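FOLDING PROBLEM:
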Amino acid sequence: MTAQAAVMTVDAAYEEAKRLARDPNAEVRARVAMRDDLRPEILYYLAEDSVAAVRRNVATNAATPVQADLLLVRDPDADVRADLAGKLAMVLPNLPEGRRDALRGQIEGMLDTLARDEAVHVRSIIAETLKDVAAVSPALIKLLAHDIESVVASPVLRFSPLLTETDLIELVAHHRDTGALAAIAERDGVAEGVADAIVATGRAPAVAALLANKSAQIREETLDLIVDQAPAQPTWHGPLVARPTLPARAARRISAFIADSLLKILERRTDLDPAARAAVAGAVRERAEAAATAERDKDPSKARGTDPNVAMEEVRRLAREGKLDEDEVQERLLGGDRAFVRAALSEITKIPVEIIDKILGARSAKGVIALAWRAKLSMRTAVQMQTRIGGIGPKQAIQPRNGTWPMAPEEMTWHLEFFGAA
């Protein structure tokens, strides 16, 4: 083909494209607007087409000249502007650095305009496309991050690497939308200052998101503030139980109010330090003891060995066989066998059962401790006796002092004499 023939062919194709761009059938014009081999002036012409479907294809066409894009930024149809926003947001990060500064400036200017568009879905397309991109203007990201609509702000708040700790603290103060605050709380590696700001808002969903974020850095003092409010916030309980490096103080405090199912999960954690594990184990014991006491108080007939005569016969048989020891008493305590324990205490101490019942019925922690001491049981068993058969709540029960009895022998003797058990 000669050069002249080639030029004639190109001219013919150009004329044909112009003819199609003026075709009265909008579907024909829309198909032409999708072509990437058109001259810029034809796409510019189609950018002013009366039919929105044609202009949408121009907006998405990578071959569309920037002059046509500048027209479409102000297009009356929001879907046209949305399609343009999506294309520009995809193109911007891939522009060669330093070689197309003018073009970059034009595209960023158009995106800035579209990021202020009245249509939420236009703004949200930009935010979703640029949420984790670093090669964009920080000013554009901050504009999107301040958007009043969570669907726009949240993607960049959650993922953008361009937002500094200072930016995020300011954004926490700016936003009142729970979704936006939760997005900040879910960021990878939330800094302590940002965590403090989120907690200070008092927004329960945002705090729950922060607690669930295992990479979030939460100071122990801030965690204490969260735990202070946590009893009234059930959605925080699960994330609190799952927090990494949970301090012993926090573990002990949440053990007092979380559900039994969560307490079991907390008890199974192997990564807690020894102090935290001990605190949780103590809470588990106290809750089990309180539940057993409540059940017996509610319906004493549910305890094993409720027949006093049968219990006394068994106690005397075990005594004759040399098997009536502390291990047996503890096992019956754990099993809720009140009748056996009272009979065993009477047999060991030689104090009448009626006096034993009087001491236990008085709900006197010191009286129960004195009774266990007289029976030569351990202080550990004395604590169990208080909560399991003494009607004393776990918080009111007297604990060992320096690992041993909390009262002097003279004081314990006095308490026994008070009940007539001298």
About this structure: Residues 3-8, 299-305 have pLDDT under 50 and may be disordered. Residues 274-298 form the longest helix (25 residues). The chain is about 65% helix and 0% strand. The radius of gyration is 39 Å.
